Amino acid sequence: MKTKIGVFFGGRTVEHEISIITANQAMSSINTDKYEIIPVYISKKGLMYTGEGLQNLENYKDLDKLISTLTQVTLVNDGEKVVLLRYPTKKLSDNVVNSIDVAFPCMHGTNGEDGTAAGYFEMLNVAYIGPDILASSVGMDKIMMRRAMKEAGIPSLDYVAFYFKDYIKDEEKYLKEIEKKLRYPVIVKAGNLGSSVGIKKAKNHDELIDAIEYSMQYTDRIMVENAIVNLKEINCSVMGEPSDCKPSEVEEPLGAGEILSYQDKYVSGGSKGGTKGEPTSKGNKDKGMASLKRRLPADIPAEMKEEIQKYAVETFKVLGCRGVSRIDFLVDNDTNEVFVNEINTIPGALSYYLWEATGTSFEKEIDELVSLALKRQREREDLTFSYSQNILALQGSKTGKK
Ligand SMILES: Nc1ncnc2c1ncn2[C@@H]1O[C@H](COP(=O)(O)OP(=O)(O)O)[C@@H](O)[C@H]1O
Ligand SMILES: [Mg+2]
Questions:
Q1: What per-residue confidence (pLDDT) applies to 197?
Q2: Where exactly are the structural domains of the chain?
Q3: Greater confidence, 401 or 46?
């Protein structure tokens, strides 16, 4: 029997469309001799749908029309397996639409990559691809991530973090702290968002105040850090589980502006013809993150590449990741220092282009992701999560209050 993979994508996130692209890239690379694909699209309202039409990217141009061809479902653990149940249910009809053996979340950003998808699959007790709740949520939170990196001794930029509500009570205190610990230019970032939302550079005191106020529109927590003036960005993917993981080839994403914006990353990436004469990925996968202009392999000295691969693996281990992640580095060209900037625990296009450059096909990558998910599920079943005995039913047991 084929293993049934439920591919989950879309969701309540600004990266909704990117997620659709990632999922379709993955679905077109899944080996259907071995696996049955069950696409589950989560609308911007958070409703779940399944249907054949979800496997053709063209259909997404008219979302309302696509949805009208789909079946709305909800997931239920029936005691033996996790089933997709038609919702609303129909009387006198079998409402079980399908079942899944492994959940494959291809959901970037909030309400997915941040641990919510992992939590949902944990509650359903189904095997799932990718890191658990803790690794996902720490990885999504820029401030918690920075604290983890500092504690683990992995090079990362100095920062000052605070809540907006505290800042407005005593602006001077925080501005002083920033100016004491950091030096201009600085970058102000929203604490827990991705996709370059809420990020602004500040070259002086006045710009700093403006940048903080700008970021505050998006979040309640802010992180300010030193800006690297002569910057090179390098990304490296890591695949596996904490005790056994390996780094990929490294890439240099090439942005058009000062800050690699949402536009650069996703919107302009879909346009035809590379403008900078840089190689881009080919074929129908040539969309979203995978089509961002890049140098692959990155043109950096061998020692720097090794250093980056080493810190990428350490970051993956410190967070306790699983599956495939992409760790993004900032390199200071003036000093040759490398800093871990962030981790994407469900990276765009699942970093397949980095693995292809390492000699692992996308199909093989998915095979590995599925077996890692099933392995974790087996290992968990061996651990004791609950006792079969009902303590309340034991005669003479000390129940109730002391
Ligand atoms: N400290 C920094 N110095 C210079 N540029 C930076 C710095 N931090 C971020 N950037 C630029 O801003 C972009 C977005 O920041 P990042 O931390 O990656 O947030 P996001 O979650 O939005 O991807 C980076 O890709 C980089 O181009
Ligand atoms: Mg980034």
A1: 64
A2: 3-128, 158-226, 230-380
A3: 46
Q: For residue 3, with 0-12 CB atoms within 10 Å meaning exposed, 13-18 middle and 19 or more buried, which class applies?
A: middle
Atom of ligand 1 nearest to the CA of 229: 4
User: Do the two domains 3-128 and 230-380 of this chain adopt the same fold?
Assistant: no
For the domain with range 158-226, which CATH number is right: 1.20.120.450, 3.65.10.10, 3.40.30.10, 3.30.1490.20? Answer: 3.30.1490.20
pLDDT tens across 321-360, in order? 999 999 999 999 999 999 999 999 999 999 999 999 999 9
CATH code for the part of the protein at 230-380: 3.30.470.20
Which numbered atom of ligand 1 lies nearest the CA of 341?
A: 17
> What average pLDDT does range 363-385 have in this prediction?
92
Separation of CA 367 and ligand 1 centre (Å): 32
252 vs 383 pLDDT, higher one: 252
Per-residue confidence (pLDDT) for residue 130, from 0 to 100: 98
3-class DSSP state for residue 315? helix
DSSP output for 351-400? GHHHHHTTT--HHHHHHHHHHHHHHHHHHHHHS--S-SS-GGGSTT---S
Pocket of ligand 1 (CB under 6 A): 157, 187, 189, 194-196, 199, 225-228, 231, 233, 255, 259-260, 328, 330, 341-342
Any idea which fold 3-128 has? Rossmann fold (3.40.50)
pLDDT value at residue 374: 97
Please state, in angstroms and rounded to a whole number, the distance separating the CA atoms of residues 19 and 40.
12
Which of the ligands is closest to the CA of residue 224? Answer: 1
Ligand 1 pocket check: which of 199, 258, 289, 327 to mutate, most ligand atoms within 8 Å of Cβ? Answer: 199
What is the 398 CA–ligand 1 centroid distance (Å)?
Answer: 57
214 CA distance to ligand 2 middle (Å): 18
Q: Reduced to 3 states, what is the DSSP secondary structure of residue 16?
A: helix
Q: Find the helix or strand (DSSP H, E) in which 39 lies.
A: strand 35-42
